[in-house]
Amino acid sequence: MAGRLDGKVAVVTGGASGIGKACALRFAHEGADIVVADLDEERAHETVAEVKAAGRGSFFVRTDTSKHEDCEELAARVYSAYGRANALVAAAGISHALYVSGKEAAGPVSPEREASFIINKPIEYWEKVLAVNLTGVMYTNRAFARRMVEHAQGGSIVNIASGAAKIPIPGAADYCVSKAGVWMLTKTLALELAPRGVRVNAIGPGFIETPMTATARADEARGQQILSGIPMGRFGRPEDIANTALFLASDEASYFTGEILFPDGGLFTG
Known about the structure:
Blueprint: E1 9-13, H1 18-29, E2 33-38, H2 41-53, E3 58-62, H3 68-82, E4 87-90, H4 123-150, E5 155-160, H5 173-193, E6 198-203, H6 214-218, H7 220-228, H8 238-249, E7 260-261
Parallel strand pairs: 1-2, 1-4, 2-3, 4-5, 5-6, 6-7
Helix pairs in contact: 1-2, 1-8, 3-4, 4-5
């Protein structure tokens, strides 16, 4: 039975763990060759190995998406190897300025909550989060969109935003603003690229079981508090987001562009 991405090439930033890794593996099982971009080389190579075990081609490119040169080099490597990129999933991101890719993190809000408020937070923390979560997505989108247009092959770009794009979280202004920016970047880029056959959509995940949320989930009281606000009564799984990304990247979503889907268990309904 043919996969939904048979013969296609997909690039996943943040592909070493969490949502990015789930997207890489899901796409591979649907027939795509996968290029994994991340800063975590050890875990990225594990993703590559799993993709190859699924019978698809794959390689890793060490990429700091907050650096324009890295994103251009990533795109150049992909086009040199395959001559095309049919899909891009921009999943690289951080919950807060001190987050390290693939590691457990407490989340965007400091345990001492007011220390994370805008009036107290170091300005370099704000700059770091926006550099990775917003400017890095723009750099990645730009590098691949340019080549998709130049090669006249079309393509699908899927940006990972967050439910925090529409829900303000005290103590996480940098994170919320960065993800709201990704949503608007997606809309604007979609309009600019629609006549050229390139679709751009976004996903706003709710609370997902990833290394980024591990510390919060490990705290029983905090975990229960979060769960109590999710109508479906469970945390999301990375595969839930990967399935959404698969739909948006596939031809089944050929009339979707400029949209954001919120797989969140009802958390942000309304």
